[in-house]
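Risk register update: the risk that structure generation would not scale has been downgraded. Supporting records follow, first protein first.
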Amino acid sequence: MRQKAKLFRASRHFASVLRDYTAALVAFRRDPRVVNKLISQETRYRVANHFLSLHAGKVLAGGDGGVTYGEMLELCSAFPEIGSRVLKTMLAMMVLTGYARSERSPADRRVKIYMPSSKLIDVACSRLVPIVEALHVLEPDLSRVAALRDDPAFQMRAMHRNGRPQLESELLRSQMPEFVGFAAGREGAAQVVYAVTLADMDAVPLPSRSALARQFGLSKTQVWSVFAEGERLGYFSAGDGGAPVATDKLRDQYGEWTSLELAFCAGVLAQI
C-alpha cells in the first residue's frame, strides 16, 4: 500500500487529482446534511459501513438483505470503543431519519431486521464516484469506470467489500495516527480540514466560521474547537483576521493521507 501511495504522489497528475478529490469531499460532506451528522465521527462511520456491508453481502448471496442487532454486535468485539450504546443509538438514528427501516423477522417476531433505505445506499454509492475518478487518472482502468456507470452489482460489491476489511483499514489508519486521530476523532474535523485545504489549494479566503457551520451542519462552537485543536497540533496557523490557514504540516500530511487512502481503495476495488 505504501509503495503504491508513493507512486501516486510522484505522478505529475497528483496535484490536480488531490484538488478535485478534495473538492468532491467538500461537496459530499456539505450535502445531505443529515447523513453527515450520522457519520461525523469515526465510530458512527464504522457502524454505517458495517451495516451496509452486511446488507450487501446478503443481497449478493441472493437474499433480501437486512441486518439484525446481533449481527452488528461483531463490530463491537473488534472495536471496543463501539459499545452497545453507540450501536443502538446509531441504528435508532438511521431509522428516525429515514436512512433505514426496521421490521420484525418473519421467522422470529422478537427479532428486528434493519434495512438500509435507498437514499442511504445512494449516498454510499455517490462516495464511490470521486474515488473511481481519482484512481482512473492515477492508474487508468476503463473497466472500473464502466462498472460504476453500468453495473449496479459493482456498487453492491464495493459496499460489501468496503465494510468487511475493518482490521485491514486499521493498518491504513495506523500509518498516520496523529492526523487520523485529529481528522477522524473530533466531530466536524474532517469537514474543516477539507475546507481549509481546498481554500489553500485555490488560493481563496476560507469561509467564515458561521458559513462553515451552516455548510456542514455544525455549530460555530464545534468549528471553533476544530480550529483551536488544529492550531495546537500545527495543522493550522492564524491568517489575516485570525482565520486559520493550512500549514506545511497539513499540506504534507493531507497529501500523504490521501495517497494512502486511494492506494487502499485501489486494493479493495481490485478484489471486486
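Supporting record for the second protein:
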Amino acid sequence: MEFQNLTVNMLTTFLTINETGSISKASEVLYVDQSSISRRIRQLEDELKVTLFERSSKGVELTHSGKVLQNFAKRFLLDLKQLSQQLSSEEIKLENTRIGTYDSITSNIYPRFFGKQLKNFQEVLISNDTSKLITNFNDGNLDAIIVDGEFEGEIISSANNISLFTEPYYVVYSLMNSNQELINRSKITVDLLKKFEIFLYPATCPIHRKVVATYQNVPLSNIHQIEFSESAISLVLHSEMVTILPKSVAINYVTKNVSKLGMKQLEHKFDRHISLFAKNEQIINLLIEEGLSEDYLN
C-alpha cells in the first residue's frame, strides 16, 4: 500500500466520527455536510482497503481495523502538530513551555527549581494521577512531564526522555506505635508488613501500583487509598497504621516530626525511577540548563 491519496482531512474526519459516535454529529463539529463526511470515510476505506466502522441505528462503532487506525491517526496528527510548532518556533523558552509532574517532585525533589521557575512556565500541572499527566502529554496539552520511567510504554513513541534519579521506598510509622517489632527491626520484612493497615496514594499513582505489584503474592492487610501524603502522615501519627513513601518524601516528613515519626527501609527493596519526557530534545536541554537536575543533586 502506498497511501498516495491519504489526507489529513480524512484522518481528522475519521477521529471526529469515532469521538461523536455518528456522522451527523461529526458534521456539526466539523461544519461539513453529511454527504462530504460520508464521502471522506468511503475514500479512506477504499484507500486502506478495510472497513473502519460498523454502522447501526444507534450510530457507528470501530471495527478491529478502525481501532488500529485510531491509534495511528492520533499519533500521526499529534506528530504533525508538534512538527508545525517546532518549525514555526524560533526559540524554545520556559515562557512557552508547559510541564506536568507529581506534587512530591515539586515539593521534595526539585523545590528550588520549581520555586524559582514556576512563574516563568506557560503552565505547570501538578497531579498525583499519572494517567492524567500522560494523557495531557500525549494529547499535546503538555510539552514535558516528569513521571515514573516505567510508564514509558504508555507515552507517545516520538517523545524524548532522560532518567533523572532513582530512590528506594520507606515505611513511615509513628514512634508511639504499640508494635515493638516495628520499632526494633532494622528493616521491615514482608511478614511484619502484613500485620499493618497501610495508607497509600490512589491506585492511579505509581507508588500504589509498585507496592501492589511487588507484594502481589503476599496478602497485605487493608490498603486505604488517600490522595495527599500530608493526610496519610497525619493519620499515621495518630494510629497504628503505616504508609509507604519514596525516600525523599519520607525524609521530608520525618525530619519535621523527628520525635514522633520513624522510617525504615523495606527488606524487599524496590526503587522509584523518575524520568523526564519531552516532545523534543531542545526542551530537555532547556530544563537541564535552567537547573532541573542540579537542584536534586545538590
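The domain at 166-272 is CATH 3.40.190.290 (D-Maltodextrin-Binding Protein; domain 2). On this basis the risk owner (M.S.) recommends closing the item.
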